[in-house]
Amino acid sequence: MMAIHWAADPKAKRYTPSSSHGPKAMNHTTLRIAQELANLKVCRPGVAYLMRKLKLSERSVEYHLGMLREAGLLVYRTKGTRVSGAVGQASVFERVIPVAYDEAHGIRTVGEGVQRRQVGAAQEARSILGKLSKKAARKVRKPRSKTASKRGGRCTLMQGGTSGLSSAGSTTSPSESKLASGKTDSPTPKSTSRPRRVLNKVGRRHQLAKELIQQEPWLGTAAVPRIAWVVRHVADAGWSATEVRAFLHHCASHRSDNIRRPSAVLATRLRAALTILRSAKDRQECVEAWRESQVAAQQRHNPADWQDLGPGPRSAVAQRELARAQELIRQRKAVAVAPSTEADGPEIFADSPAMALEDLSRAEVLEMRAAAAHDPSVIGLAIELIGETQARRLYTNAAVNRFLADQETANV
Questions:
Q1: pLDDT of residue 175
Q2: What's the confidence (pLDDT) of residue 190?
């Protein structure tokens, strides 16, 4: 840096660029670039790095690097490559102290090439070297712009300024009738009402997905973009969240054992939605039927039916359990009064309290499992009458698990 400050001295004019375009001499930009090069352990800066670090243009960096090379202060060690289709490699430089600097200050050196080092200097040049050392120790900064000082004088709180002109004689105070009242009509009034933003196709899909996740608890862990992709067909057809929920309630399909994600369950259940409900009228009828079923369910679980049992429980969970027990008692009474005599399957549970599974033959077990595969509600009736353990022995764990999973999905 001492050698660069010595070569860039504007009064001595020790270096003049040979190029007719670009800077005419070294300036503070050259010193800033040289300062960045001196701080690098390996002098491989790259033009893009210097542009970003010093906020300079590409042409300015190239000009000043060329001047440093031309003055003998910077030499190539490895020249960079610019191969089309490949990553460009930055040039590697070596920072050099020219021989003219040593001769001008009487510096004695030993060694050659990169091993050359100074061992002394002339007595009369030591004061100059001390000044150059102070300059090299100071950080070179970008000079401030002087355009602000060319503007007019600044106003103070007392209406004073640096300008010698007075504006007292050229201004007049307005009359009392022309003072501002605070109410005026602007020639360009601001618009207070903005047009309502209209969602595009992708926005409608994400809006429907967000509403379904908020309203359906079993979709709570799903991501909005994934659900938006699943419901893209019904969203493009104009379905609302209420219509989708009504379709899921009435047209639920049996869930497979290998489907675990909520988004996959939703995709399976909505697979034939546009085929089943083809028009807006069909969707409206589905919604009305769903609401009627909700009202009927509330009436079935109305605590007013429990008045003969005394005061009901206060907890909502206890109320649901009590309602489920009451419904189970009603179903058992109905089975005891009128046992099943359907032609689709055998009379299974007419003598269920006294029935032993060991007494059934293999053909009877296969027939009962076939009936359960045809109508899964038979498994639910078996669980109520003979218990879940015996039902699993009769219909296998996989069939009972599938039935219970479908029941949980329907209840949700």
A1: 66
A2: 66
